[in-house]
From TrEMBL, chain A:
Taxon lineage: Bacteria, Pseudomonadati, Pseudomonadota, Alphaproteobacteria, Micropepsales
Organism of this sequence: Rhizomicrobium electricum
Residue ranges of domain Nitrite/Sulfite reductase ferredoxin-like in the record: 52-109, 342-392
Alphabetical list of InterPro entries matching this protein: NIR_SIR_4Fe-4S, NiRdtase/SiRdtase_haem-b_fer, Nit/Sulf_reduc_fer-like_dom_sf, NO2/SO3_Rdtase_4Fe4S_dom, NO2/SO3_Rdtase_4Fe4S_sf
Keyword hit for Transmembrane helix: no
Residue ranges of domain Nitrite/sulphite reductase 4Fe-4S in the record: 119-272, 405-545
Domain of life: Bacteria
Name by which UniProt lists this protein: Nitrite/sulfite reductase
TrEMBL record, chain B:
Entry superkingdom: Bacteria
The protein, known as: DUF2849 domain-containing protein
Stretches for region Disordered: 86-111
InterPro entries tied to this protein: DUF2849 (IPR021270)
Pfam families for this protein: DUF2849 (PF11011)
From TrEMBL, chain C:
Species for this entry: Rhizomicrobium electricum
One Pfam family matching this protein: DUF934
Domain of life: Bacteria
Highest classification ranks of the organism: Bacteria, Pseudomonadati, Pseudomonadota, Alphaproteobacteria, Micropepsales
Protein name: DUF934 domain-containing protein
Amino acid sequence: MYRYDEFDARFVAERTEQFRFQVQRRLNGELTEDQFKPLRLMNGLYLQLHAYMLRIAVPYGTLSARQLRKLAEIARKYDKGYGHFTTRQNMQFNWPKLKDVPDILAELATVEMHCIQTSGNCIRNVTADHFAGAAADEIEDPRPVAELIRQWSSLHPEFSFLPRKFKIAVIAAPHDRAALRYHDAAVEIVKNDEGRTGYRVWVGGGMGRTPYLAYVVGDFVEKPDLLGFLEAIMRVYNENGRRDNIFKARIKILAHSIGEDEMRERVLREFQEIKTSGYLQVPDEERARIAAYFAPPDFERLTDEALPTDGDLGRWIVNNVTPHKQPGYAVATISLKPIGGVPGDISADQLDAVAQLMDDFGLTEIRASHEQNLVLPHVRQKDLPAVFARLQVLGLATPNAGLITDIICCPGLDYCDLANARSIPVAQEIAKRFADLDRQEDIGELKIKMSGCINACGHHHAGHIGILGVDKKGVEYYQLLLGGSAAEDASIGEIMGPGFGEHEIADAVERVVDVYLKLRRPGERFLDTYRRLGMEPFKNVAYGEQLHAAH
Amino acid sequence: MPQLLTANRLIDGRVLYWRGGGWVENLDEAEGFTDAAVADTALAAAKEFVARNLVVNPYLFEVKDGRPVKEREIIRAAGPSVRTDLGKQAKYGSTGTTSPAAPERDDDVSI
Amino acid sequence: MLIKNNLPAEDTYVTVADDAPLPDGAVVVSLKRFRAERSDLLARNQKLGIVLDSDQSPEALGSDLDRLSLVVLEFPKFRDGRPFSWARILRTRLKFTGEIRARGDFLYDQIAFLKRVGVDAFELPPSITPELFARALTEMTNVYQPSADGRTTIVAMR
């Protein structure tokens, strides 16, 4: 994985001291809250319902055992013994004190971590395919590109006060595991007809109040041109994005109000201007230097094993283990969705134990996925039984990756200042309903995604089944959406109709799933059946007895 | 409906409630306002604490029988409903009751 | 206080309201007034500056830019980041070599960014002393991306 050189290390250390000075000025009154807020957000610090919340960047989701141990240490020393993995591959702590945050940042810097641009109206932490470097279907590892963008966007002097936040994802495989089309901009590594590798660049996706899917603005951007091309996009956005209405300030609104052709033209015109006046071309050597850090580990020469498919181990392998590009290796997903648990939460003890597991099995890195799970990208197949046994002891062996209980869920009103309704208890209730593994496996791939407010941190628009918490006069209600997808077949879920009460929503989900089981054709996922039949058969059953009740 | 006055403490973000010209952490100890004019006077006084960089975002909210009307305020007063071992509920017990659970370790910073 | 090229400086320009008579000497006018009285203003043969509001791109100035010695970038709110792009365009694309001055609601924490995109003069609020201004420029030693300041990037130093 990427290692800081002296420049990176100094940059992060100085950024920490810069923030320390900002906190000092806030505490002694030289900065008002109004002035301090965007500054603290640019360093990932929110003020939530109960306390501050600190969001730590995990660039493209990659972590070492040493970093896990530092996160565990911070969780114990400065927080309440646990952390939360988010839908953007970051980690959040829910209880830090403002006065301690500079010290936390200093501790993070010792393991090459930081909170730079994990919030604020700037270019956010860059995400990537969590199977990068291991997936059998990738063209190349997307993380060197993500790292290049991370460095270029860090304290960008021109693009740190954008109309609104700006999220970028990078993938390099036909199977999209990073929700590419829901990003403000995305880079897809592709091969052209001549077999040359370059970038397809997307723009204008997003969730929130007005969901849109991104479209292509650059069909094939040459490798040295990437940052220049991104600069063109950023400048068009910085100049033209709306600043009069926070709900219309994302690039998706600009991109879809002026339309695809106009957006393309503006970006290309800007890119031409940038080219004329001289621009940042990334030299081959620099790309090679960064790529070298992501060289695959020294794989042993192994052959594929016959893996068990029954018993507890077999079920975990069937559901949580994915083929690796290297014979004899596997990709293992560690579910952070135990039945009845808080999706994405992990205790300090578990963080330490996973670090120990990595050391014991020679695993140098682990990934955080946007689905709020962890991924061990390079496990020897012969080690799978022992890894599984260890995870079982840690309560981390739930065999539900990709199944109905593997729910993406934002913190909701239990923690979040923006939330309208709680989301975690609803996710827990649904998971309990479907806890039976036979039933989950029978249902197959079904992605439930749940947000406690319209901002959609829980990706409800992109769920096969999406749930959105809303507030009606101080009481929680839940809207059901069907038919969303964040994968290569991306689509935006449709709202079914009136919302459900806190005690009705799990019933509604169950009825919808039952009707799918009745109506599906062989091999059809829930999403496929929905796309074939539309909303009606699901809506007809979802409301049950409450169909005509007033909501 | 009676109102309470709340804010977050600047230095650590913790939830505070107004009582007698100052702040307490436990909603059960907060001062209830039945007179809107009195509530507004308290809010104005609370803004002095904002100016002194001690609290942020003071505001009034409604309670009924000593319990917040809105779910948001119930959760702010207690802690995460999915982690009853954390937050004020662990320190003071559930809102509206008098039997505190075992206090969690928390070296809260007072103003 | 005016800081120019990192040092306290005397402000030799007078900013004139749109409906006020022009005093003798160097003046700064709005883009609107410049457009309305362009030939008169240029005929004065005095130093001339214009103010760009945050929604006014310098690209519209065209070749008139050569006749200007100062462009003032107005920050209506510090969160409005458009002037950062205007400065960058003025320096990098339009090759403007005159003074670019930041005015209005900008923060201490934005000074280093402003300097990087090509701003070389700052109308500082009383809360930012010259000492603080100098400190702002020393917080971050190195930079990752090229901008209008010609600084050697980390990529180039490696």
